[in-house]
Amino acid sequence: MKLRNNFLWGGATAANQYEGGYLEDGKGLTINDVEMGAEHGKKREIHDFIQADSYYPSHEGTDFYHRYKEDIALFAEMGFKSFRLSISWARIFPNGDDVTPNEAGLQFYDHVFDECLKYGIEPVVTLHHFELPLNLVKKYGAWRNRKLVELSVRYAQTIMDRYKNKVKYWMTFNEINALFISSAPWHMAGILYQENEDKVNTMLQAAHHQLVASALTIIEGKKINPDFQFGCMLLYPCTYAATCKPEDQIAARNKLLPTYYFGDVHVKGKYTNTCLSYIESLGGKIEFELGDDAILAEGVVDYVAFSYYFSGIEGVGENIEVAEGNLSSGGKNPYLDMTEWGWQIDPIGLRNSLNSLYDRYQIPLFIVENGIGAIDELTEDGTIEDNYRIDYLEKHISAMIDAVEKDQVDLLGYQVWGPIDIVSAGTGEMRKRYGFIYVDKDDLGRGTLNRSKKKSFDWYKHVIETNGESIR
To answer: Which of 39, 369, 380, 405 is catalytic?
Structure first.
């Protein structure tokens, strides 16, 4: 098996980290718009309003709202076959529960998709990427409330009907399993746990509401256009047992249960034994409404999308040192190097992850996030020699090709996070850069926002031109 001739090479972004224009043309406030920037290594402060004289990175992002033509032209120059972006719910329904959509918001995404299609770039759209309208938190308590199922499906129907002839590939919720494995439920579901709240049951119920909303979105989407392709999107925390001790094998398996929980419901259309045993282990319960089982069974996905950045180890020993990662953590592996942010670099882990997911689900996979955050230094002539990024991506793409060619994994595409410098989701920093394209902006929001190409720009262009042959 070879990579598909129409393999979807590209890059991935999120509106709250990239788009900016946070109150332009009728857009409402989102949960990100009240999340302040933080110093390196510190958590961001969250309020339910905007404080004067404070810095909120999402308000400008890196200004895709005004520079989308320039950026998409650069993506096209690299030869992108696909571009993943998210739609901001509050740009379409400013309060989340408005009676009519905001036409200016709809027109913006019309322009973006038209620009992509002009260059033959396939839009890959995430409907919910940590982008909840703030009003839905204040008025309904966010995803705790079943009302959000109805409101989110109406939003999705509006979007899918509007762009039914422009978008084929959809994902419902970004890294939906992060609600279980992250300490930041604000991002995933607009939730800040109250002092006496039953956190386990709130978490399980919010997740159920999202799973039902996802299934209903797929059901309604297939009515709008039967050719739509829907994926779930998982954060995949590749995990190895710390030793060959049998108990460590169980610990490694247990680490992956929150991920397979969401994958199982999306792909198999039901709460499997994995899901039910996990609920029982937490001592929690879920309230179902009549018809939920049928909805989940019908609204299954066509592919499994996932993010991969790092791996970790897990065991029962007391001497396992923690390594932080993307919204989750794992034990340090002595055989791996680490990034400046403590993320373990494991290209072979990507091959292992592809095999684990494909063995379990037997439907096409899609890598929609993979990349390395680093501090890029401008040279005297204004260029960036980001050989570390080229090395990281080259090794991961090589492992991905091995999974396809040697292991027979069915893979739709590969998207780098992010193809242009954007604001860090965790801290709001700019210093943690991922892009092939440098954006002149610092951690305090200062800079011209001018774009310039890094060394990796032409490298990735050549990878796409040769459909991966250049790195074999």
So the answer is: 369
